Amino acid sequence: VVGMWILAFYVLGTVAGKEVCYQRLGCFTDDPPWSGVPGRLLTGLPDSPEHMNITFSLYTRETGNNSQVISAINSSTIQKSHFSSRRNTSFIIHGFGSTGKKGWVVEMCLLLLEVENINCIAVDWTQGANGTYISAVNNIRVIGAEVAYFIKTLQKIFRYSPHEIHLIGHSLGAHTAGEAGRRIQGIRRITGLDPAGPYFEGTPPEVRLDPSDADFVDVIHSNAAHLPAIGLGMYNTTGHLDFYPNGGTVMPGCTDLMPEMKQNATIIGGCHHSRSHEFYFESILYPTGYLGYPCETYKSFESGDCFPCSQQGCPMMGHYADRFPAKLKRVNQKYFLNTAADPPFATWRQKVFVKLSGVKKMKGDINLVFHDTEGKTKEYEIASGVLSQDQVYTKYLDVEINPKNTKKIEFLWNKTIFTLLWARLGAETVNIIHGEDGHAVTVDYSTHPLGLGPGLLDVFYNRRNIG
Questions:
Q1: Would you call 212 a catalytic residue per the annotation?
Q2: Do 109 and 58 share a structural domain?
């Protein structure tokens, strides 16, 4: 029995004090900053790669919906696969309690392959991610080392450049990507999808995802722990571009709050945390629908302080963030945007000015209805209460219809039951400013008579830049 234990130590690793060493990957210690620092007092050592049964599944356009399991240990599997050194490569890395064998990781690979001819590798570490959260936190150091070892193998076999590689990680997977990037210099891009907060928030850069881990690091925060809310993600910036959709903590359309805790704090669950990879997925299909505005706070963004974009433009959250010319201007750039509650989540921010005409004062509400070329409509309230003639009403709208696909806009007003039957209300002008270029687009009402009944005026979307 003793002999078997000795053999096991040689096979799986050697433990010396508070350090464990694994063949190919090197040694891991629990010295600071890995433990014993603020926010990271209770941690330990990672499991062996054999125990975690880490696998790399390759998806290409040749494999279709299937995949090929490839291994850096048995490098002939890569040479015999459809991996091509002439293509870019994306690694998709899941987080705690998840899997790389099915679900969002596989769906992400398949969608990426629809728009780009790449090698997409799904990294699975299910057995290392299904224990306690603390054990999974420890294990990502080995997973990151394995990803780095895989990249080194690609360099050795194909002379493959890290500059061709994009690591996409969710939650603990984001920090796993950071660990791989710490070990391999020159990775083109790392995307952190709501990087895990517990045991990472406020820790030194070596421990977590950091801008130095790749040439370009972009981050989506969807469940940030920001008081009074308690979330699963990080609130602090940890990339070159950090996006905070809907403020970055609570996502519209998610209802997994714990009612018993609402009095003191909001406990946020998995839906908000998962939105980050859902946003990234949809951003592949809607390249202009996730424009982020540079702002210090979400409150400033909501009040319109950061609208429209400056001359240098604004980046797109998600897949096309790397197209932003100023992406490397500095680190820790904060960007805010709002999304819709339901897929595809994309919105286009517009500032709307409505000048009324008709009776001097009346009670009711005024709305705009946007129509697209496919017959879909979305209605948005502009103002309600006492409405005054000649007053200009201003509203920031996050419209779920792409301006390029907008066929017409309707002006809709509803009067209260006590309003005189003969009262009429119209819109003298409607001006719309689009956020991406700072140009106002005027909708001209001059060809439409006002007061056509108690409710509806069709307004066709006549585009005219006015500055």
A1: no
A2: yes
